[in-house]
């Protein structure tokens, strides 16, 4: 699938190389999005929590967030922010006026700081709570927010670098969480035991065993459909192969005759 970069440079110059990078970036994003969909229950429309630093970077790099975000994430998005993030931009003054104008266009989500606004970074992190239950993507250039959200499993991070939006790879906390779930570590052994006893009391545990038994019986009673297919395939293609071989032989003999005739013709001409 990957083309040698040298050849692409010689045919179409920089543009082609740039396209290769864009394809790689999109592929990586697709992989990361499906990671969050599968392991953390993310669904469209994706909720994108944005702060002033991201808007400022978008403005500098001439990125239209509303246009680019759904394209890059390959799905519907809801762009949102908090009143604390907006208030912070207002207090920072003229230099961030453009960023404020952009941020104002997004939905304002309720935060717990209605009476006393806090810094944008503190507010954004508080919106994620401990498990990011509202499935927010966070779009920020703020170091405090970035390092903070990486400690919470299941928070996708979006940032701007080299004129493009980038979806960060899953954090170690996210990867560890997924592994722990797969290993069954997140439910303690004591809890697992109490779940088992509860199931047995309710008679659910026995039903599970019966279902498993039925599935096994089905597999044994039905013949494997693949084994049937193989026999047919082996039987059918062999006769036509022989025919083609015979035809090939006949053709060869005709060719020989023609060659001989042609040879005679040329001999006659000279
Ligand atoms: Zn707030």
TrEMBL record:
Keywords: Nucleus, Ribosome biogenesis, rRNA processing. Residues 197-211 have a biased composition (Basic and acidic residues). It is found in: Nucleus, Nucleolus. The gene is UTP23. Its main location: nucleus. GO terms for cellular component: small-subunit processome. SUPFAM superfamilies: PIN domain-like (SSF88723). Involved in rRNA-processing and ribosome biogenesis. InterPro entries: Fcf1/UTP23, PIN-like_dom_sf, UTP23_sensor. GO terms for biological process: rRNA processing. It comes from Oreochromis niloticus (Nile tilapia). Belongs to the UTP23/FCF1 family. UTP23 subfamily. It comes from the Eukaryota. Residues 249-259 have a biased composition (Basic residues). This is rRNA-processing protein UTP23 homolog. Pfam families: Fcf1, UTP23_sensor. Residues 214-233 form the UTP23 sensor motif region domain. Residues 194-270 are annotated as: Disordered. Gene3D superfamilies: 5'-nuclease.
């Amino acid at each position: 699938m990957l083309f040698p970069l040298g050849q692409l440079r010689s045919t179409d110059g920089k543009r082609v190389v740039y396209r290769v990078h864009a394809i790689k970036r999109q592929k990586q994003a697709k992989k990361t999005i499906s990671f969050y969909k599968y392991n953390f229950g993310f669904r469209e429309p994706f909720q994108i929590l944005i702060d002033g630093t991201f808007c400022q970077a978008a403005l500098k790099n001439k990125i239209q967030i509303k246009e680019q975000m759904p394209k890059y994430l390959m799905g519907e998005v809801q762009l949102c922010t908090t009143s604390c993030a907006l208030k912070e931009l207002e207090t920072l003054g003229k230099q961030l006026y453009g960023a404020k104008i952009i941020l104002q266009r997004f939905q304002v989500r309720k935060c717990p700081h209605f009476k006393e606004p806090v810094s944008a970074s503190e507010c954004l992190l508080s919106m994620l709570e401990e498990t990011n239950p509202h499935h927010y993507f966070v779009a920020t250039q703020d170091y405090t927010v970035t390092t903070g959200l990486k400690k919470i499993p299941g928070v996708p991070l979006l940032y701007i670098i080299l004129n493009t939006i980038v979806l960060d790879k899953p954090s170690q906390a996210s990867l560890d969480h997924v592994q722990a779930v797969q290993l069954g570590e997140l439910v303690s052994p004591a809890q697992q035991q109490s779940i088992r006893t509860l199931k047995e009391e309710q008679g659910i545990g026995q039903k599970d065993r019966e279902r498993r038994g039925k599935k096994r019986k089905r597999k044994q009673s039905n013949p494997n459909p693949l084994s049937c297919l193989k026999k047919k395939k082996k039987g059918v293609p062999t006769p036509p192969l022989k025919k083609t071989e015979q035809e090939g032989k006949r053709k060869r003999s005709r060719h020989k005759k023609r060659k001989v005739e042609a040879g005679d013709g040329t001999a006659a001409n000279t």
